[in-house]
Each structure stands twice: as C-alpha cells, then as structure tokens.
C-alpha cells in the first residue's frame, strides 16, 4: 500500500528481453534485466540507485519513463495508476516525470539549435512556438547559460558540461515533478561534474523537484542522495536512508561494494578482494538469491529460496533482501523465528 | 556459421523467384507477343491463333509463368528465334567469352587498385595522394565505354598497333595475336573496378594507419613491412567483399564494353538479341546473369562472415 | 569549439532569431559560398543549362538537317567549328540540342527515384518491423540486377524511347536510394535524442517532423546528387546501345554510337560527344562532393 507521501510507487516491475538466435530467429534466451522490482519515491527526496553495470538501473529508468514497455508490474504517480483507464495516461505522466540521459551529445538533435531542443517538449504539449521558445530562454538562464549567447548554438559548438546543462533545461521545460538522472554526470570531467551537481541541487530547491539519481559512482550518490537503493542483477538488494546504508550496510553485496571504494585514508587498506568472480550472466541468473555465487555468507537456503526485500525495522525505512536478516529463514546466521 | 550460410541461401530463393517473375512480367508487358514477332502481319488470324495455341499463349498467365520457370530450372532455355539454336548453347559460349574478358580485367583492376590505393594512403598528404584523389574523381565521371572508343581511336586508328574490335579467337588466347585483341577491352573493363577498389583500399589503409596500434608498432621500430602486413590483414574483409561485387558487375554489366569492341560475350549476345527482338535469348540471358550476380553476392556474404565473425547475424 | 559570431548580445534578438529557425540551412549556404570549386562547378552547370534550354540562340545550324556532301568534316571546318557527323549534320548543334535529352534523362530519373525511394526508405526505416521487411525484401529483388542489366532489361524488352529510358533508370535507382534512406533513418531513430523526444511524450509524426527528417534528408540528398553523375553516364550508355533515345534525335550517347562508324575517318569528331558526357558527369560529381562537405555539421 503506497504511503500517502509517496510521489511515485513502483510495484513488481519486470522486464525480460528476448534474445533471438538460431536458424529462424527464434527466441533462444531471456535476459532478465529487471525482475520484480518494487519501491517508492518520496516527495522532495533524492533517491539514488547504484549497482554494477548490467544490474538493471538504466532499464528501470526507461521503464519508469515508459520508453520500454514492462512485462509485468505497475507504476502509480500520486496514487493514480499509470496506463489504467481511470488513472494517468502515459502522455500525462511525461508531464510529471522527465529524464536526463548520460551521453550529452547524443541526447541532442545535432541539427536543431539548442533552444529548439529545449522548446520541443512544451511545443508537443500544445504551447505556441513563441511561448515555448520564451520558456526555453528562461530555462537557459536558470541552468546558468546566457540565452543571448547560447540559444542559437548547435550541440557540436558546446562543451560536455554545457550540453548537459541544456539537457537538464530540456528536462525541466515540461515542469515535471520528478527528474530521473541516468548517469547524467558520469561522462563529465570531475570539476564540471561538481558544477553540474551544484546546479542540480540549486534547481531542486528552486523548483521543488524530486530526483532519481542513477549512477555507478558511489561517492557522488552518497553526496547527493537522501535514500539509496542498491541493485544487483535486476533485483533490489538493499534500500534505505543514504547515511545509514553507507555507514552500516546490511547486505553482503552492499558491504562488498562499499569496501571496494578507493579511499584517500591510508588506514583503510583493501587486504583482500571483497568480491570474487565475475558478475554472472543475466540470462541465466543463479537460482534462489542471485548474489549467492559471490557471497561469503551463502548457504543452502540461499540456493533454494530467493530472499524477499523485507523491512529491518517496523518503520520500514530500511529494507534488505537477504536471508541472514530474516528470522527463521533457515540461514545459520539468521535469528530464530520470533526473535527481535 | 552453417546456420548463417543456410539462412543466406534460403533467403536467396525468394529473391531469385522475384527476379524470374520480374523478367516474365516484362516479357508480357512488352507490346505484341511472341507470335507477332515470329510471323509477318499479313498472316491470317486463324493461323496466328493456332500458333498461339501451340505456344500455349492462350493459357492463364500464372500457368505460363510456371511452365516457363519449370523449363528454366531444368536448363531448357528455349530456342533462339533468330538462329534456331538452343539458347543454352549460345549462352554458355557467350558467357565463356565474357569470362575470358572479365577475369583478366578483374585481375588487373584489383591488383592495380590495391597497389594504387595503398600507395596513395601511405603517401597521404603528398602530391601523390592529391593526384590520386583528382584521378579518382575523373575516373568516376568517365563513361568507360567512351574511354574504350578513345582507346580504339588512339591505338587502332591513329597508331594502328592494336586491333579495333572483335575477339579474334575461340576459347582461350594462345598467341600474341590473340592477346592483342584482348588488351584494349581488358584495359577498358578494368577501369571501373580499379577506381572503386583503389578508393576503398586507400580509405581503409588510411584508417588503419591512423589507429593507435600502428603508432605502437612504429614506436617499437617495427615499421614498414610488418605494418604493411597488419594493415592489409585488417583491410582485407571489406575489400574482398567489394571485389566480389565488382566481379559480379563485370560479368553482368559488360555489355557496353563488349558493344564497343564487338566482343561476342554475353553482353554482345544481349545486344544482338535486343536488336533482333529475340525474346528467348534476351530473357534467358538476363535471368542467368542476375542469378550469377545473386550467387556471387551470397558467396561474398559468406566469405565476409567467415573472415569477420561480427558479420554473422 | 567553433567561434560562431552572434551579431547581437540582446536576448530578445536571440529569441527572434530562434523563432525564425533558419539557422542550419543558412550555415550550409554560407559554407557553400566559401567553396570556390563547388561554386565554379555550379556555374558551369548553370551555363550548360542555359545553353541547352536556349539552344537556338547558341547555334547556327539545324541539328536535324545534314548534307551527305559534308559528312565527317573535321574540327575547325569553317562554318562547323566542331565538324560534322556521319550524316553531315553540324556537330556543335547536335551537341547543344543533344544536351537537352541527355540532361533530362540524367536528372529526372534520379529526382523521381529520390521521391519514391526516399519516401519508402524513410517509412521503412522509421516504422521498422513488418513494413521494413517487406520494403527491404522488395528492394533485394531489384538489387539482384547490376544496374545496367536492370535498365537494359526494361528498355530492351519494353522498347526504346525517352519515356522507357526514364522509367528504366528511375527503377534502377530506386533500390540504392531506398537502401540508404532506410539505413540512415534506422540509425537516427536509435539515437538518444529521438528517445528523449519520445520521453517528452511526442507522437510519431511530430518526432518525424522535428527530429528525423532534418537529420535524414541531408545525407539522402547528397547521395542522390552523387547518383546524377552515374545516371548521366548510364542514360548515354543506353542510347549508345540503341535502347534509349531514338534517332534522329540528338543525344550524346546516341551520337557516340553513330559516330563510331566514322572513327577511321575522323577520330576526334567521333570522340567529342563523350567529352560532354564526361564533363557534365564530373561537374555533378564535384557539386555533390561540395554539397556533402557543406552539409556536414561537424566540419
């Protein structure tokens, strides 16, 4: 039951991609990109989503934006189901939720002046061209680019940081409530990245935005997020307030991920590789818990039963998908049933 | 790999069927029909009609098509209206003559193309390369049949050192005299492949030379021959593919050069057939040439997939 | 980063310029203006066009009347500065008048093929799926023929004449244009900014109008213009074979064929029509190259 303050509620989102092969192009295998993912996005927060490459973060983003059709599951915005007859249409959802992509250059039409790229969204939703362009100019100023200088430029005439600002302006043009940032700063130089992050923080306060920030860079996510969601092979393994997840990670994968972060602190040395082996194939993920093949705590029960994402405490703020934290699961480290 | 080859072959079947249907449709769209060509117009209608019946022209189109296709598949290409000889016989002889022209032309064109292209790429940004680029543009704009005429004008008429036209022999050349007949047509025919291949080779070699691993090899002091070897190896797949295609064009598109030099190849045969409105010869030749082209395309695809696994879809 | 001079620093003016949206094509035009070679070539072609259209003004003799007494006169004969052909007609007149048909048969098929093939290709590339497969398989059948063969098949079987020539050449050029249109459209369709446009909630037609067409038409147009030079050569080639324009019309390829008989007597005259084909073809080639460079956004 989505809590009243949840802006976005995602339930059991699933997407499997079919792989074609063989003689007649039959579907030979399924890539289980996103599997039964449920979470909420609270009003006004920044939800960070982290994980290795291939864990399903970008696919999740595209599923939220309805750029890909989910196989199963539902999305509800402010309580209204998207795509249902009585709920929100996809077109309406696009007015509430927008996305900034990773590749700043490929995200912009090389043959349109950037002002037109920004104005395109409002134009599509019925605004007159003059007004749409005027809005674009305002947004250019809002992201720190002088409209007089930048409005008629083409993407190839701008630097990566400037282009990403344009992309942010474009995302804001429709006055969305939620902005999904899919590796939006990953391709930028560190100094530029810092500038853009500060810009994002500014804009969030100014326009009362909610962010979903997807990245593989753990430091950045920690810096910017209120809550963090950790994904592995298409499933959520841990979710909770950022400082708690970073300070006291509960899932073995989160622990391994965090301990692998390079640190400037000479006292923190990595003595032993925290994760062994390569990430297994999303085509045939391990049975039961998907992390078990690399988990130092794996046991028989992990092979047979997939762990559910369950709350650690009654307030539900932190949830972990690991048998160790489920009383009575059968894991040797789990507490007995009924224990606190 | 075999799946790929099989798929490619299976895929060619509807294409070839389409080709046959196209040719058949063209034949029947042509003004007048077979009988009109065969008999003079004064012939009474009754006789003309009975002839039509004999040729099964009164049957529904699709039946005629199937019958025609069936005959093609067993190699029965019909009989020439003009000479009365079986088309298959004339065609195979003519094809042989075209091969006598096409093979040396391909050899010369490909070899010179590779050499010139590589040279131009090696000497990038020098006068040699600029000359090459200029020549390339000129080459692509030249009508090769005109070049043939000019060559004849220069070497046969003005200088009188080579024969102006004709094949001069049967089968394979066995003497210098025979070869003399070959020189001008082969040179003319080799121009287009040479131009096309040299441009591709130059582009490929340039691209490879600019890649980083070449810099590494150079830094190691292994330049020149090793680099040449590596470069060619990388440029090979797409070059081979293009060569295959060009050879197909040489076989299927030789008509212009053969007309200039009065060469009795498949092109020359087609020319005569057009002139004489010899429909069986013309249609059979077109179908056969198109089929050869399709087969060459398949071979090229398979070869490419063999060399470059990324090509296998 | 290119240094683009924006004439004013006023935001309102910038807004106005943005609204006019002439930016891209103006830059193409500006770039073209700087390219001396292309301009020269376009000039030559324009001059040719004028001469050909206003042929009576540029020639003295009638291209159809000849006198057997004056057959195959060489270049420089008084009154016939390029000589005469095998029937005694003035060669210069024949060449100028011949330009009409040669240019017509060279440009019109590509133009028609661009319309038909471009439409089909873009549609197939954008729609994907079954429509794409259908169009591409049809194209494959036509691709089974080397281009000359297809043109010859059509004109050889259906008969010679200008109409059939244009028909045959149009059909020959439709497959390559479909192929490139489909390929470019598919590439563009998969780019991030198209996805971003979809994320804005735009409908397919809107995306086509604002994002696909302006990225796709450029390369297709450039490719089509590069085909013109080939078409001119092919059209003349068809006439050369007797499959194109019919006598007594003047046309460069046809003239080339007819003059072959006279090659022993007057080799230079016999080769002249080919020069026209070559020069025209090369001009179109250079023009197409210049256009391509001007349209390349990244340069």
Structure characterization notes:
The complex is a heterotrimer of chains A (340), B (313) and C (299). Chain A is built from eleven helices and twelve strands. Chain A is of the alpha/beta class. Chain A has a domain at 252-262 and 287-340. In chain A, strand 9 (227-232) and strand 10 form a beta hairpin. In chain A, helix 3 packs across helix 4, helix 3 (114-124) runs parallel beside helix 6 (160-172) and helix 6 runs parallel beside helix 7. Chain B has 313 residues and is mostly helical. In chain B, helix 5 (87-122) packs across helix 12. Chain C has helices spanning 11-20, 23-34, 36-53, 55-58, 91-127, 129-143, 147-158, 162-189, 192-199, 204-240, 252-258, 267-295. Chain C has one domain: MetI-like (MetI-like fold). Residues 1-9 of chain C have low confidence and may be disordered. Chains in contact: A-C, B-C. Chains B and C meet through helix 1, helix 6, helix 7, helix 10 and helix 11 of B and helix 6, helix 7, helix 10 and helix 12 of C.
Question: How are helices and strands ordered from N to C of chain C?
Answer: HHHHHHHHHHHH
Biggest interface goes to: B-C, 50 and 43 residues
| Molecular shape of chain C | flat
- Low-confidence residue ranges of chain A: none
CATH architecture annotation of chain C: Orthogonal Bundle
The SSE string of chain A, one letter per element, is EEEHEEHEHHHHEHEHEEHHHEE
Poorly predicted sequence stretches spanning 5 or more consecutive residues of chain C = 1-9
Strand content of chain C: under 5%
Main beta sheet strand tally, sense and closure of chain C: none
SS summary, helix count of chain C: 12
* Total beta-strand segments of chain C: 0
Q: First CA to last CA of chain A: what distance? A: 24 Å
For the record, what CATH class of chain C applies?
Mainly Alpha
The shape of chain A is: globular
> What's the helical proportion of residues of chain C?
over 70%
SS content category of chain C = mainly alpha
Q: Quick check: average pLDDT of chain C? A: 82
* β-strand amount of chain A: 15-25%
């Amino acid at each position: 039951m989505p809590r009243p303050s949840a802006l976005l509620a995602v339930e059991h989102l699933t997407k499997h991609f079919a792989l074609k092969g063989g003689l007649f192009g039959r579907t030979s295998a399924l890539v289980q990109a996103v599997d039964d993912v449920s979470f909420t996005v609270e009003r006004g927060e920044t939800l960070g989503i982290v994980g290795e490459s291939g864990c399903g973060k970008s696919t999740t983003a595209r599923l939220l934006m309805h750029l890909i059709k989910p196989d199963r599951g539902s999305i509800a915005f402010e309580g209204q189901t998207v795509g249902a007859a009585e709920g929100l249409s996809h077109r309406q959802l696009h007015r509430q939720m927008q996305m900034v992509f990773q590749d700043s250059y490929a995200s912009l039409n090389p043959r349109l002046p950037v002002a037109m790229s920004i104005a395109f969204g409002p134009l599509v939703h019925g605004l007159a061209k003059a007004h749409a362009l005027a809005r674009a100019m305002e947004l250019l100023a809002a992201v720190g680019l002088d409209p007089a200088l930048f409005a008629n430029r083409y993407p190839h005439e701008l630097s990566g940081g400037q282009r990403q600002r344009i992309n942010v302006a474009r995302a804001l043009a429709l006055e969305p409530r939620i902005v999904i940032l899919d590796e939006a700063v990953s391709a930028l130089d560190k100094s530029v990245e810092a500038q853009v992050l500060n810009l994002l923080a500014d804009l969030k306060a100014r326009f009362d935005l909610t962010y979903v920030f997807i990245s593989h860079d753990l430091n950045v996510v920690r810096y910017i997020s209120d809550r963090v969601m950790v994904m592995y092979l298409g499933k959520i393994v841990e979710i909770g307030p950022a400082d708690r997840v970073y300070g006291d990670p509960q899932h073995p994968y989160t622990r391994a991920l965090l301990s692998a972060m390079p640190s400037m602190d000479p006292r923190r040395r990595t003595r032993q590789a925290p994760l062994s082996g390569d990430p297994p194939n999303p085509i045939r993920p391990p049975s039961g818990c998907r992390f078990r093949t690399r988990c130092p705590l794996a046991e028989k029960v992990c092979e047979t039963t997939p762990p559910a994402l369950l709350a650690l405490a009654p307030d539900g703020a932190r949830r972990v998908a690991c048998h160790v934290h489920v009383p009575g699961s059968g894991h040797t480290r789990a507490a007995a049933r009924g224990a606190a | 790999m075999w799946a790929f080859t099989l798929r490619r072959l299976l895929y060619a079947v509807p294409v070839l069927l389409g080709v046959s249907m196209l040719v058949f449709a063209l034949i029947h769209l042509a003004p007048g029909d077979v009988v009109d060509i065969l008999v003079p117009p004064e012939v009474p209608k009754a006789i003309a009609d009975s002839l039509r019946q004999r040729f099964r022209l009164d049957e529904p189109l699709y039946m005629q098509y199937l019958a025609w296709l069936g005959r093609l598949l067993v190699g029965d290409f019909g009989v020439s209206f003009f000479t009365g000889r079986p088309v298959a016989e004339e065609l195979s002889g003519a094809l042989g003559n075209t091969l006598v022209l096409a093979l040396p032309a391909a050899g010369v064109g490909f070899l010179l193309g590779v050499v010139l292209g590589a040279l131009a790429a090696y000497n990038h940004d020098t006068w040699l390369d600029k000359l090459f680029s200029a020549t390339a543009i000129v080459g692509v704009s030249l009508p090769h049949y005109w070049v043939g005429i000019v060559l004849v004008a220069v070497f046969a008429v003005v200088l009188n050192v080579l024969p102006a036209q004709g094949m001069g022999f049967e089968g394979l050349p066995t003497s210098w005299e025979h070869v003399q007949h070959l020189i001008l047509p082969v040179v003319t025919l080799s121009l287009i492949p040479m131009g096309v291949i040299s441009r591709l080779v130059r582009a490929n070699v340039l691209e490879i030379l600019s890649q980083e691993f070449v810099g590494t090899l150079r830094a190691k002091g292994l330049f020149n021959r090793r680099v040449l070897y590596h470069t060619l190896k990388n440029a090979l797949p797409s070059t081979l593919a293009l060569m295959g295609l060009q050879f197909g064009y040489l076989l299927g598109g030789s008509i212009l050069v053969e007309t200039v030099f009065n060469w009795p190849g498949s092109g020359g045969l087609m020319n005569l057939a057009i002139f004489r409105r010899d429909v069986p010869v013309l249609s059979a030749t077109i179908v056969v040439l198109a089929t050869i082209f399709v087969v060459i395309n398949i071979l090229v695809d398979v070869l490419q997939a063999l060399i470059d696994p990324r090509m296998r879809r | 980063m290119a240094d683009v001079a924006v004439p004013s620093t006023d935001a309102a003016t910038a807004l106005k310029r943005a609204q006019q949206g002439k930016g891209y094509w103006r830059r193409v035009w500006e770039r073209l203006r700087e390219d001396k070679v292309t301009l020269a070539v376009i000039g030559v072609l324009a001059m040719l066009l004028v001469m050909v259209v206003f042929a009576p003004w540029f020639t003295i003799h009638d291209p159809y009347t000849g006198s057997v007494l004056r057959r195959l006169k060489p270049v420089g004969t008084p009154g016939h500065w390029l000589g005469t052909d095998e029937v005694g007609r003035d060669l210069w007149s024949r060449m100028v008048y011949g330009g009409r048909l040669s240019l017509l048969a060279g440009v019109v098929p590509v133009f028609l093929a661009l319309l038909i093939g471009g439409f089909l290709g873009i549609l197939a590339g954008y729609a994907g799926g079954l429509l794409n497969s259908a169009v591409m398989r049809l194209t494959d059948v036509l691709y089974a023929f080397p281009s000359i063969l297809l043109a010859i098949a059509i004109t050889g079987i259906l008969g010679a004449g200008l109409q059939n020539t244009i028909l045959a050449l149009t059909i020959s050029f439709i497959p390559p244009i479909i192929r490139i249109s489909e390929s470019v459209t598919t590439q563009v369709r998969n780019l991030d900014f198209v996805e971003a446009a979809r994320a804005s909630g735009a409908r397919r037609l809107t995306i086509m109008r604002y994002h696909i067409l302006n990225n796709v038409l450029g390369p297709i147009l450039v490719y089509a213009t590069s085909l013109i030079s080939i078409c001119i050569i092919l059209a003349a080639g068809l006439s050369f074979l007797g499959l194109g324009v019919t006598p007594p019309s003047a046309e460069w390829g046809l003239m080339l064929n007819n003059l072959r008989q006279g090659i022993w007597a007057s080799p230079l005259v016999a080769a002249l029509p080919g020069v026209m084909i070559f020069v025209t073809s090369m001009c179109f080639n250079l023009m197409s190259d210049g256009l391509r460079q001007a349209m390349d956004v990244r340069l």
